[in-house]
Specification:
about 130 residues; alpha+beta; about 15% strand; globular
């Protein structure tokens, strides 16, 4: 169930103009897709998205999300969201730049799909992205 929900939530924002990139095993292509297929029976309930936004606008999107509870860590039966910036807020600008080169941008959000209906999660995600 969570595999399918996370895959649906991951597929939605790929076409949204405010989403720069989405990370989820179910979206893999080429050699990565072959590896995922050989090693996994599903994509799992976790995904990350990098928004085309600064830190403040990303935080505003997270604050507007419904059904996704803001949490310091992910995992549980409810859908959860966190920004890696909350766990790395003490880093100086040089360290944050290194993080960004590794794909952990200040505009990244991490989501854990819970047991809620995928269509509800997608609708609330769209609402949060389109609000401003």
């Amino acid at each position: 169930m969570r595999n399918d929900t996370a895959a649906a939530v991951a597929a939605f924002p790929q076409t949204h103009p405010r989403v720069a990139r989405v990370y989820h095993p179910g979206l893999a292509t080429g050699e990565q897709k072959r590896i995922v297929g050989a090693q996994m029976r599903g994509g799992g309930g976790m995904l990350s998205a990098v928004l085309d936004a600064n830190t403040e606008r990303t935080a505003a999107v997270v604050d507007r999300l419904r059904l996704f509870a803001i949490a310091p860590s992910l995992g549980g039966v409810e859908s959860l969201v966190t920004q890696p910036i909350t766990t790395h807020h003490g880093l100086d600008p040089a360290e944050r730049a290194k993080r960004a080169k590794r794909g952990i941008a200040d505009s990244m959000v991490r989501l854990s799909a819970g047991l809620e209906d995928a269509n509800d999660l997608i609708a609330y995600r769209a609402q949060a992205l389109d609000a401003d």
